[in-house]
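Task: encode each sequence below as structure tokens.

Item 1
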Amino acid sequence: MAYAAYVFDAYGTLFDVHAAVRRHADAIGPDGQQLSDIWRAKQLEYSWTRALMREWKDFWALTEEALDHAFERVPSADKSLRADLLDAYFKLDCYKEVPAVLKALKATGARVAILSNGSVAMLDSAVRNAALDTVIDDVFSVDELRTFKTDPAVYDMVTTAYRLYPDAVSFQSSNRWDVAGARKFGFRTVWINRAKMPDEYKDLSPSLILPDLNGVE
């Protein structure tokens, strides 16, 4: 079945969230993966906590705070690398299959978009750095709502902008909690299970599970 719009989460789905630390792996040392894992986990935790409290900070501020916390948890990592890591995060690499998959979907006549917790500036930078600006039709950031996924209002940004029913949208995310939120909203959902994680939220199952974006249709 063809969909009117294919909408993608950004971080972890299109862009490799661990690429920033990997770029400076030699300087960070053997605890680099631990630093990256904590950085990502806290970035998400802070977004959920802020959304529930209704105490807004944009995703870039939370990304900075999460990195500072990760440095505290991993004292072997050199804090002088902070600016370099943040700069690298602003210019994350996309996964290798992303350009071809997005181009193929766009060629069908469907809209291709990003729906992300990322700030406008973060997303614009990532899209340009990965040369995806020619295939992405729209970038929806939560900035205008001042909340985060999985608030239903975030997913509604797409249906309102495109004047579509939710079931006309195929939503792809590597984050299982995001897939659950999108499924509850009514999107067709595809879980990009890059990390080979066990399934959860069994009452809000994805329509399809893939190891990467190849196979999205």
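Item 2
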Amino acid sequence: MQTTQAATMAVSRRVAGPSLGRRLEANPFTWLVPVAVMLGIFYLYPIFDVFRLGLTNASLVGTGEQYTLATLRAMLENPALGGILWTTFVFTFGSVVGQQLFGLAIALIVMRGERRKLKGMVALRTIVLIAWVIPGIANGLIWQMLFSEAPFGAINSVLRLMHISPVAWLSDPHNAMLSAVISNVWRGTAFSMIVFYAALKAIDPTLYEAASVDGASGTQKLRFITLPQLRAAILVNSILVTIQTLNTFDAIISLTGGGPGRATEVLSLFTFNTVFRNYDLAGGSVLSVLMLVISLVLALGYASFLPRREVSE
């Protein structure tokens, strides 16, 4: 009798289907919920809170917080904002172009050296990567000593030895922007080099062999094989470098402090000054949202040029 009851219960469990635990394990949303909660807490909530603060008059020293559009209107109508956006464009454009060119050049040199089995290619990659791991503040201080117009300034000292007049690297507005771009390119070139080096490794070497058989020169190989094959890598690297440059303020604040005047005050540094020097938390939130919108627009613009895979019928 007991055997019959046990068999009946086993059959009923099989008919009822898998247990609740098994159904939860088989459901992919069970594993996605913790990730979604963590992302919501640490990423989405701060973004929503920045949007909320941008619609208030919040301050780092004030206690009363009221919802108003006055802060949004005041920041967007700030007469200095147009010049700061232009400065940000010049700094970002120069940095992105410089990092792309130097990163590609170094990656090509490393690849050419490896193909010819030259020694020192690993050392070259390591030297380039050293600049990438240096913190932004330290990077600015290093280049401040190099560009210094004092007698101990390294670059001007070399110019004096060559009987060339010293250059006002940091006190002249035009040279200050050039100096900021040079320091940022020096630090960020390593990242572009890594991206392009990985993309060059993925190019089929038979393409170059066929081009050599056809008598193609090195310039023609670069133009008709290398650059077309690197199109996706160039666009993806442009997105990453642009977003990284737009958020750069630590190297500039230690190199020029945004000066002389506001010659090198980019949008990220303007946001920093608004919050931590003017104690305007709402105004800084508005500028942060503006930076987010600019980054998204540029990222979508770059992404529109990415090659798309054709859907096979």
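Check on item 2: The longest helix spans residues 81-115. The mean pLDDT is 83.
End of task.
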